[in-house]
Amino acid sequence: MTKSRPDTIADSFIRIVEGVAFMLPERDGADLSCRGQAIVATMPFKGPVSGSMALAAPEALAVEIAANMLGTESNAQITPGKAHDAFGELLSVIGGNLLAALFGNVPVFDCAIPEIAPMTTADWEKLGTDPCALLFNVEECPVLLRFQCNA
After folding, report:
1. Residue 113 pLDDT > 80, yes or no?
2. Which pLDDT tens digit goes with each residue over 56-102?
3. Which of the two residues, 89 and 36, has the higher pLDDT score?
4. pTM above 0.90?
5. Which CATH number fits domain 5-26+36-150: 1.10.10.410, 3.40.50.720, 3.60.20.10, 3.40.1550.10?
6. Can you say whether the dihedral through the CA atoms of 1, 136, 126, 49 is positive or negative?
7. Per-domain residue ranges of the chain
8. Is residue 131 within 8 Å of residue 149, measured between CB atoms?
């Protein structure tokens, strides 16, 4: 049985977040409401198909992700720059694995360096209603992952 694209995207996201950020994401029970400032990492890609990926979460969760990825004992050691770098790196790893899961290991894709930006409430709500976005619950925080291919 072939997995659907949303299932493949979800499986890749969950596997990478568990293995790289040492967190347990869930697809069920996620609440779209975001408490605090949110950030988004975006990464366009080119290859046999072109498109973009976006990963969005509350900035406080990005700090926790960075602390886990860097193996620090305290979130207080994580600067906003380190949190943003780790969040972008997480998207890069998710993206590379996701492209291989969807298209195989043979095609070559050129993925740009992820760009990190703050999100307004309107940006968050727009991404949350995007039909290409999936909502996850990570450490009781909402996380949005959008994968979009251009025709």
Report:
1. yes
2. 999 999 999 999 999 987 788 899 999 999 999 999 999 999 999 99
3. 89
4. yes
5. 3.40.1550.10
6. negative
7. 5-26+36-150
8. no
Residue 117's pLDDT band (cuts 50, 70, 90): very high
* Gyration radius of the chain's alpha carbons: 15
Q: What is the 3-state secondary structure (H, E, C) of the chain?
A: CCCCHHHHHHHHHHHHHHHHHCCCCECCCCCCCCCCCEEEEEEEEECCCEEEEEEEEEHHHHHHHHHHHHCCCCHHHCCHHHHHHHHHHHHHHHHHHHHHHHHCCCCCCEECCCEEEEECHHHHHHHHCCCCEEEEEECCEEEEEEEEEEC
User: Which two structure tokens, joined as six digits, stand for 5?
Assistant: 């694209």
How far is residue 49's CA from residue 104's CA, in Å, rounded to a whole number? 12
